[in-house]
Structure formats: structure tokens, C-alpha cells
Amino acid sequence: MSYTKFDIAGQSVGIKFGYLSYKTIVSDKNRSRMFDDEGNVLEAGLAKIIHSGYVNNCVIKNVEAGLTIDDFAKQVDEMVVTPEGVEKLKEVIVLWSESNEVKEAAKKITDAEKKSPLTSESSVTESNPSATANLE
Asked: pTM, whole model, 2 decimals?
């Protein structure tokens, strides 16, 4: 299951990865700042990925997403300086990279890119087993 809880701004929110969260990442104009050349998540990508899971969860539950990407960026900045925070971030990123919904969406997009010579291959269209490499 690609669902977890995430503590942010004094509350525990649901994070659910699915097609919407994946599409948010691959269509982002700053995607090159979120991943290194091997497809590993950079610090800038952590907040975006987690926020995309939060928004996806809100859409599924038909509730308004009250937290912004800035809220998630601040939380990630606080978490990357503690061992406990880094472990929680790793857990969430592994959940994202192993999500069946994300894998299926990546396969669909990768297949579509192979059929179209006008698109370029993206480093985030495939699940990366070392998605947490930059957190170590």
C-alpha cells in the first residue's frame, strides 16, 4: 500500500501516492532540480514528492488541501538535520518509489514516450531502487 501518515505543522496528514502525485512530479518545470543525473531524489524534490502525495490523498478523500508546498519544504528542512527525520524521509521516498500506482503510471508514460519521437526520456519514469541515495 502506498499510504502513510506524515507529521507537519502540528498535525498528522495522510500521504497517498498515485497517478496524480506521479503526474505532478513528471510535469513539474523544475523537475531537473528535484533529481540528480541517476534519478536519486535531491532535497528540493523531497518536499515536492511528499506534497504531491498529500494533494493526491486530499483529492481521493474529496477534502481541501490546506497545506502548501512551502509548509512541506519547511518540514523537510527541519527533518534532514536529524537522524529520525532522515529515516522518516527515507521511508516516505521508498514508499513513493515502490508504489504500484507510481510504477504503473511510469510504465504508461514510458511506453507513450517510446512511441513518440518528440519526447525525451526522463530519469523519473522508472522506479529507482536507490531513490534515497542522497539521504544517506
From this structure: 0.76
